[in-house]
Structure formats: C-alpha cells, structure tokens
C-alpha cells in the first residue's frame, strides 16, 4: 500500500513538472558569455577597516548597542590578495589566489552591561593564505559588462595569534602558531569598465574547516588547541574591493 502511494505521488509530481511553464524572472541567461573560454584573468583585491573609540578623559568612552560602554581603544582589519586564473569554459575559471590578512585589537578599557570590565587587552593576528579557486559568473540581463559571481576556495593558511596585556615590565600573554585548512564560498559582483578591466566587490559567505594552534603562554607553558568549524560569516567588515584584468 505504501509503495503504491509513493509511486502515485512520484507520478503526480512528474506530470506536474512536465506541464509547468518555465518562469523567466528577468535575471538573464546563464549561457550568455561574460568572459569567454580560453581567457586569462589576473588581479588584486583588498579591504581595510579601522574603528576608534574613546572619550574626552580617562573616565569616559564610547557605547556600542547599549551593551558595551566605556570603550577606549581601536580595532584594525586589513587584507589583500592577488589571483590568476584561466577560463576552462565560458564564464567558469580555475586558478590560484594568495592572500595576507592582519587584525589588531587594542582595548584600553570596556564594560559589558556595566558589570564585567575589560582593560589592557591586546590581540594581534597575522596570516598568509594560499588557495585553489573556482569561479562561476552569471551575467545579469544578458549583459556582457555586468555579472554576479560565486567563488569557491580550498585554502591553506598559516600565521600567528598574540593575545597579551602590557605592563611596565613588558608583555604577558599567549603566543600561538596557527595553521588552518578550509573550504569557503565568496559571492560578489563584477562590472567591466573597459573591454579588459573589471572592478568587483565580494565578501565571505560561508566557510568550514579545521584549525591547529600551538600555544606558548608567558614564554613557559606550552599547549595546543584544535578545532573544527563551520560558520556563516557575511559582514561589512569582510567586504573586499578589487580590480581584474582579462585578455
């Protein structure tokens, strides 16, 4: 009886799909050629953000979302990458990408819900990344100069992470060598401004992988931290602006 109901449902869905009309949503034809097969593309991209917070004296500071107040310090995000790729088919490329990233947090003071205080906290993270990247373009409105794209990256990353406090006698905290293997998706928008030069905007969307940290605390205690991760991570601070050349 159950098998009969399943077969009936499959037959009904198949018949419906055969009779359904194709809906043109006006986004364009994915078979339109944005960058043709055999082309070579290379370019650079990067992003930079710096946030500063403070007050008129040592006892005042900025407030964030009404949750964190008395903020004094600065945060810097910077990254840059270069890539080269070849088009194995129309609108589809395979290539390599090399990147550099740096994050610096210098928090002199902050208070969470006026209950938990943070002060004299410093974080410095630097990394170098190598990736194999596959990118697919979707021309919008059958355009030859404007398209969406999605880039998948298989990446290996190495760098360091410093988490410390600053005292009169020097720094005290944890230093870690960090190694990461990840798979991520980076969507974006591309637009040709000349026949061979395009500008693009992209941001990270999802990423997952494994990370290995080898830590040294106060120059004496050795330890390790390993983690697997999968994260949905879009954000304006991860926005990258780039330029590419096609020939």
Mean pLDDT, all residues: 84
Sequence of secondary-structure elements: HEEEEEEEEEEE
Major sheet size, sense and barrel closure: 8 strands, antiparallel, barrel
Helix content: under 10%
Side by side, the strands of the main sheet go 1-3-4-5-6-7-8-11
Task: Write down the CATH topology.
Answer: Porin
Shape annotation: elongated
What proportion strand? over 45%
How far apart the termini lie comes to 62 Å
Q: Radius of gyration over alpha carbons?
A: 24 Å
Would you write up a description of this structure?
With 247 residues, this protein is mainly beta. Helix content is 7%, strand content 67%. It is built from one helix and eleven strands. It has one helix at 2-19, and strands spanning 40-53, 62-64, 68-89, 92-112, 116-139, 146-167, 170-192, 197-202, 206-217, 221-232, 240-246. The chain has an eight-stranded antiparallel barrel. Strand 4 and strand 5 (116-139) form a beta hairpin.
Structural topology:
Blueprint: H1 2-19, E1 40-53, E2 62-64, E3 68-89, E4 92-112, E5 116-139, E6 146-167, E7 170-192, E8 197-202, E9 206-217, E10 221-232, E11 240-246
Antiparallel strand pairs: 1-3, 1-11, 2-3, 3-4, 4-5, 5-6, 6-7, 7-8, 7-9, 8-11, 9-10
Features:
247 residues; mainly beta; Porin; 8-stranded antiparallel β-barrel; 1 helix; 11 strands; 7% helix; 67% strand; disordered N terminus
